[in-house]
Amino acid sequence: MREITGAVIERSGSPVVIETLRLADPLPGEMLVRMTAAGVCHSDLHVRDGDWVRSGPVVMGHEGAGVVEAVGPGLDPSVVGQSVALSWLAPCLRCRECQRGRQWLCVGSPAYRHAGVDGTPRLSRADGTPVLSYLSIGTMSTAQVVPASAVVVMPDGVPAEVAALIGCGVSTGVGAVVKTAQVRPGDTVAVIGLGGVGLSCVMGAVLAGARRIVAVDISRTKLDLAGSIGATHAVLADPASPEATIEGIRAAAGDGGLDFVFEAIGNPATVAQAIAVLPPGGTAVLVGLTRFGQQASFEVFPFVDGGRRIIGSNYGSAVAAVDFPAYAEAYLAGHLPIDRLIDRRLALPELEDAFDRLRAGTVARQVIIF
Length: 370
Ligand code: APR
Ligand code: ZN
Fold this sequence. Notes:
Distance between the termini: 20 Å
Oligomer: single chain
Bound molecules: adenosine-5-diphosphoribose, zinc ion
Number of strands: 18
């Protein structure tokens, strides 16, 4: 048992309160991780703002890195002291999807219960009230007990803030391009929405050898950042005139048209644009998550007639134990400039301000440093 400090929301839609909590020791199959960095992802904002209904109280955060401090009974202690990235989908490694290598579709993960491996929380308030940990890792806290399958050791030399981003935004965006869509050298791609996830799609497209990379956002600053990491064309979107945005994307894609368009916002209007810009044979890859219950629509005849496709990409089809070290090695080799995505570092008590900036769309990726 030890004391930690965590960013707690009472329920979806309520503001963050920084609280002192009690953290129990790890059970078999769990590890105690001292957090070193935690990214602020739009999915946290979906929970904070009540777009996604979750029970509470819960410690926020699902993108993080840390150092292993202790392991539960029966686990190999040689991992103690190692720098790690955390996966927000601790795979159960037993269900059918895990067994066939599709861990991003795991149905037995403790993450869905926001608790430890036995389904009960490790955190509590001084009065004994149990406190959940978002997706079983609740990274916006000074330390957590997490499922061992969420823990991935990082190669030497990877900064904590880079490891944190590998835990969600980078894997979600890069993986959507290289794993889910399997973009090939010479392909033409567009990315709509240039937050941490969309900028990672741009990096993934560069890594895959895409010839033309069209970046689309309502912010000029984001377009400039995308250009500096390898986007070849920029389209300033005007939400008031989607037709103009669609024409702009088509023009930037050139004669061959788009092979793939990635929607990295989770807005029905931009999902519709992603489908509307497709030439025959093109594929829309939906990466952004909407509010629960959202619908989007498209014209059916040309979609079928032109052999177009729509695919959903969850967590960039990540198998964390394999993909996280590979993305880290690509960073170290200079092929994934993950550090370029980080434009603000903050302390845990500044989290509400960080959410305000994320809502306003004025930042790329903000990282809490512990
Ligand atoms: N057209 C183009 N760009 C837009 C539009 C629009 N209509 N509306 C917003 N954007 C841009 C914003 O300017 C911002 O750059 O989309 C980007 C969204 O980025 P973030 O809010 O930083 O979100 P991010 O953390 O990257 O997550 C994106 O992926 O995993 C999901 O839940 C997550 O749905 C979220 C999405
Ligand atoms: Zn995320």
